[in-house]
Amino acid sequence: MNFFNLHTHNLNCDHGIISLFPEQLNEITEGKKYSMGIHPWHVNEKQIDNELEIIESLAKQGKILAIGECGLDKIKGIEMEKQISVLKHQIEISDKYNLPLILHCVKAFDELIQLKKESKSTQRFIIHGFKGGRTQTRQLEKQGFYFSFGKALMDNNAKVSESLKSIDKRHFFLETDVSEIPIEKVYRKAAEILGVSIEILVNLIERNRMAVFVTGY
């Protein structure tokens, strides 16, 4: 079975999307799948233009499947106004090249929802490493967001487990992010929470992958 990993920083991942930052441009190799974005923790005003050019060049060449990870963070990173500006540019690239966004968001969901509305983007916004409860989940679902679950499921986070059970099953993925936990274990935990077989879950996420990543995989 192929366990699709929506978001990982493991450069050796064979069936998933490896998340890179612009300074990792030289890590790209044939036969693997990548996303690239400017993380809100790493925004450097002197480098933004060059980094956006790198991302857009890769998008134009079809060398990345998504923009990200990018996003907003009220706990860590440059001031929110500048984070929003950088994210706006990345949303524009995602729309121009028809690529989904893989998003990091910490305590800035209101700003992210507003930005999505204002941009009128037609792309899929995927919140990676989602840890929100059902109220937040419903709020985001109404705005068309997708969700990716990872380590929080393995930590037996009841709030996150309830969110997983409540969402539209066409709008979620699983991931490992920076964790060394094998993606297979995340799948088995999710299958246990959902009360389905591992085969059903693999097929469900494969269907979601094909719907969201319409080109290049």
Quick tags:
globular, 8-stranded parallel β-sheet, 17% strand, TIM Barrel, alpha/beta, 8 helices, 42% helix, 217 residues
**Overall geometric form:** globular
User: Approximately what portion of the residues adopt beta-strand conformation?
Assistant: 15-25%
Secondary-structure element series:
EEEHEHEHEHEHHEHH
Number of domains: 1
Q: What structural class do the secondary elements suggest?
A: alpha/beta
Helix content: 40-55%
Number of helices: 8
Quick one: biggest sheet? 8 strands, parallel
User: What is the correct CATH architecture?
Assistant: Alpha-Beta Barrel
Lateral strand order in the biggest sheet: 1-2-3-4-5-6-7-8
Total strands: the figure is 8
Q: Which CATH top level class fits? A: Alpha Beta
What is the fourth-level CATH superfamily? Metal-dependent hydrolases
